[in-house]
Protein 1
Amino acid sequence: MFSKLKKYFYFFFAAYFKFFAKIQLQIWNPRVIVITGSNGKTTLLHLLESQLKDEAKYSHLANSSFGIPFNILGLKRKNFSIEEWLTLFLSAPIKAFKKKPKEKLYIVEADCDRPHEGKFLASLLTPEVTLWVSVSRTHSLNFDKLVKEKKHPSVEKAIAHEFGYFVEYAFELAIVNGDSKLINEELNRTKSTVKKITMENTLTGYKVSKQGTQFIIGKNTFSFKELLPKDTFYAIEMCKLCLEYLDKSIKTSFPDFKLPPGRSSVFKGVKKTTIIDSTYNATPASVYSVLEMFKEISASNKWIILGDMIELGDEEKEEHEKLANTILSCEPERVILVGPRLSAYTFPKLKSAKIVVEKFEKPHDALKYLNENINGNELLLFKGARFLEGIIESLLENKEDIKKLPRREKVWQKRRKQWGL
């Protein structure tokens, strides 16, 4: 019941904070650069931060209709209690007139988890520049209704239309993924200058190993110690073009670049295993992207541990079935599937393959299997939901690395414990 009420009144309450955030934004009057898309947003945010550093303010961990107004107002959520919400409501009018930040640039990561969120945030931010990285089936459960009501021909189109508000409201420049048909179809909505980025003939080299990633783009070579998927190319190019727009040149080394936890972080595991932790999210696009990256890594005894992709609605069965071919292309020694969706839809497509495939409903059963079957020196890729970060906790060689995993808050610790982790 509470969940339904929260969903129904989501924008009603968010509009309260938006009103006061707009006041603070007008007082501050920064140049606003919005980063949006289904996946790749956070990588681009951190690429820009590594180049601009303290010249800009960044919306870390805030990309929603509540998160961005809170970030502008300087409000912070901790436990989501009723008492905390009351404090936030009372603080918002005061924070609207707080001392404005010293930075002249505001770089914002903006998402569209639900219908109307793109327009809601775009009308708040009215960006000078929009960087649109991607479109895919993310939170498609929330958009299925629009297709059934025949407001859009497909869930992908519905999602793209919502993201399209960020280019519609951009008043100077839109830098977009020109290889996306869905993005291209929305560009007639903007009056700003549009720059399209395409991969063919621009990305001339891509190498990834356990030691890091290298991109050769035009005459420049970009090297990272992090493991980055091939489609990070779009983020690098957008970073370069955005800096040029700001009359700055890109530095090909990114010594201060660091991604948040759960985005292909590499750890030493028990029995001399190597763990790749990509458990932050599990959208179809991000799963395919990471699996394609894993395929490029040369290593013997590669294992894939996947958790369900959630909030896919009517597309759930199709997306989980499609995973099978991509998994097989990685040529793994073993595949461990965790969750009812993977068990129901992906496992039947894999069980006849000449690899070891196991399925588990609960993450603690998968952990037991891993503990019993790891021999040593395996390369273990973790991607997806179902609290896979809780499995990684038990497999780390250095327990100090636990704090480098995603979802460290007490609420998540409690949930993992309830799941037997």
Protein 2
Amino acid sequence: MPIPFRLPRFYPILDTAALATRQCPVLLAGKALIEAGAKILQYRHKDAWTQNHFEEAAQLSKLCCDTGVLFVVNDRADFARLLRTALHVGQDDLSPVAARQVAGDEVMGFSTHNAAQVARGNEEPVEYLSLGPIFATNSKLRPDPVVGLEGLRRLRELTEKPLVAIGGIALQNAGEVLAAKADSVAVISDLYPPKCDHKSLLARAQEWLRVVSGSAP
């Protein structure tokens, strides 16, 4: 019997646009998160990929492989296949069935935003689902309707797959999200301190890990 996939409770996302706004190199952020103890790391680049982005993802992938961290490429099944990494796809990307043909047997996640999409996710060949936005967020240009904590509790009952909550999650509300039965919290904006250097990033990531480890399962 295969071992069920387990999501780390802290799911940091290296969003290239958010990091560029803070003039923070992606590799610097990735190294700080790994040093802090993160066990999963997603590379999220929503614009067109260049060779530089591919090489950046490749360096992060090697760092993660060397340290036992699961590295996830967002959206792009082709680059996940080339890098032999995990993959996360959204509602507007390749379907999980098609993406599986490209990415192979690597771990795959699937974004959901409502009951119908969660139900579909149950039937898709993916190891975990994400659900959001739980709160209002600025990380998407056209965000889906807010799910809220009550919506999270309700939709959590519709799936047995590991569920990562995303959207507007900060240190102040992460405990409530985990108490609403999310298995993991994905973090973008609140991950990056105003002074985005290695020391500050390391301290913020360590604070996040303390918060999620101290929250009720």
Protein 3
Amino acid sequence: MIYLDNAASTKLHPEVLAAMRPCLEGESGNPSSLHAAGRRARKAVEDARETVAVCLGADPKEVLFTSGATESNNLAISGAAAALRTRGDHVITSAIEHPCVLESCARLEKQGFRVTRLPVDRQGLVDPAAVSKAMTPSTILVSVMWVNNEVGTVQPVREIRDAAKGAVFHTDAAQAAGKVPVDARACDLLTLSAHKIHGPKGVGVLRVRKGTPLDPLLVGGGQEFERRAGTENVAGIVGCAEALRIACRDLDANARRMEALRDRLQAGLERIPGTRVNGHAERRAPHLVNVSFEAVDGEAVILSLDAEGICVSSGSACASMSLEPSPVLRAMGLPADEARGSVRFSVSPFTTDAEIDRALGAVPRVIERLRKISAVSR
């Protein structure tokens, strides 16, 4: 199998598995227990928190562990809005956020908040000037992702942060960590997910800058500084911290490796007639290329490549069951037929040149066959 869907999830790094193994096979203590086994579990969690803090340039007390980026984003959006309700009722986000951010904002609207969804340009960029223009005295929260999960466009996070002055600024960095430099000091709230960086599924991070108001979503315990109740996933937390440590340690080498693989893949795909690359030509993450194939349906391409042993996707795995054209690509101005013909290829440092070459041997054949079927059906 050739796995080119690393933006959806990644394989577990061997070093991460080794770090998690003692927690999975040996210790069983609850970190909240007072006995020796509980104290050892607590130390594992706090050591992991320290590791994450160092990687992000944060204080350990600013690091919360969650069940993943979806929970972190929900907590950031809903928790900050609830805590700041007495100061204002206006929230700003972009039209191309992950569904868990957009749906969290839609929920706020049902609670009486006002939400501004900023447009993006043809390359998927949010204009910081548009953020400044949208700001009002009642704006309490701005949420714009660091790297778009469908097209890989890298947002001008620091400029947006400056434009959002006076409001809490949140960024979803799930697709940024391990691909581009991430500094938590560029925001107030920052979201990460372990399984996007060769860590385990079901664990994530929300960094909460000291002094940032945030009401909990989960209550019933004092864990995570009383901001996220529930027994900690010790093995997952250890794996998350190790994955982030490795991602930071190997960032430059891995980024160069992924960029070379991505460019090799993109060059081959662009040789197929009727192919359009979506996203920014320069401000882009190194692991991802999104293309639209003329006169074919993206879902048909995905299923046909799957039959060839090649895993790709059409965009966010959390929206993969939808039959509607990608809202991200539609927000970027693509016509519905181009958006429906889009396919996302994403590599990792574990991807090989041989796998790219094999994929490039299969994709043109699949596109040609699907176009013939489409022509006949018309």
